[in-house]
# Entry
Amino acid sequence: MTIFDESLILETINMIKLYNFDIRTVTLAVSLRDCISENIDIVCDKIRFKLDKYAKNLVKYADEIENDYSIPIVNKRISVTPVSLIGESSSEKDYIKIARTLDNCARELGIDFIGGYSALVEKGMTSGDLALIESIPEALASTERLCSSVNVATSKAGINMDAILKMSEIIKKSAELTSERDGIGAAKLVVFCNSVGDNPFMAGAYCGYGEPECALNVGVSGPGVVRASVENLDKKADMGVLANKIKQTAYKITTTGELVGRKMAEKLGVPFGVIDLSLAPTPAIGDSVAQIFQAMGLEHAGAHGTTAALAMLNDCVKKGGIMASSYVGGLSGAFIPVSEDSGMIEAVSNGHLTFDKLEAMTCVCSVGLDMIAIPGNTPEETIAGIIADEAAIGMINKKTTAVRIIPVPNKNVGDKVYYGGLLGEAPIMAVNNLSSAGFVKRGGHIPAPIHSLNN
# Structure
């Protein structure tokens, strides 16, 4: 006879009902490398066939597993091969047609987001890369579910400053073309250093070139669970005890996520890929990374010690997760998006958390400057400088960094934007008014650091 541990059952129920634990996303990565053709219409037909073949039951099976295990699965997503590669061979490089095809497929399949409208240009841009990048503003303005990303730097290749300057222009245009929705186009666009091809989270998910034909990647999230476990500790517990508590909690979160991921992959008849155990917050009260800092003993996010607390949190989440699964991948750690975290929103609104402090925190978090709204009149060169700084942090530290920044048209510091859902709301943050133009307009490449020569 099976003996159930009542305390573990109650703990799992509390994680879900009281502390906002969920499977943030199941993301089906689908390779489109066999969809290449000289005829753009054939490309689109192949894409439709491929996505329907692998993803037609994704939402149905996710709903079934959610009901079977009573674990919320918030988002069902697809990531595809970087589209710049898929459209480049076509005689008619109509990337907008591909963008709308992907968006229509996502809508018909009931998918929340589809990622992979992407290009990898850390060493330079081909004609196909440039055509895709220039199409991004229109693609994001004319679709609902499509997400876009561009990788402009790696620790091996250095930083492509020409691409960064181009992307600052694209970010501004993406916001301007969706000005009636507070520049939401820019909220679906992320610029990376050291992007990864098995990331299940949007807006940066794509199916990497070395990935299989199809695989299921899972993103779990439980900042509310971690916050509650830390709050329940003795306030005088030392850092070692605190670290162990976070690791134990991450272990539980990861095992739950892997169970769901493997069941989903089995139902779909595809390989299980990775579990990304990033602590991805939501605007819901209590589901906040910033509030974990408070539980750790800081008055608020932004206080001196915040970067140290984030470094410890990020490391412990990775250590706890890797003990629970041999397939931890993606980004894995802690996200610090402003608009998607109620505690971060409060900290910025009260002046506790500045742009410069956020940049410092990105040295130790999972990604980078995420979902930050800035004045719409911010110069392109300033945005390029922000991206260059973040790329430098990633390049030197051999980690993934990114910028998802929204220059909100017709709004300034003191205003707010409201996107709703997981994108939340954000106060407009001040940026440094000093000019970056003379530096970023030099163009060319910032060479890779000396430690890139490690072969």
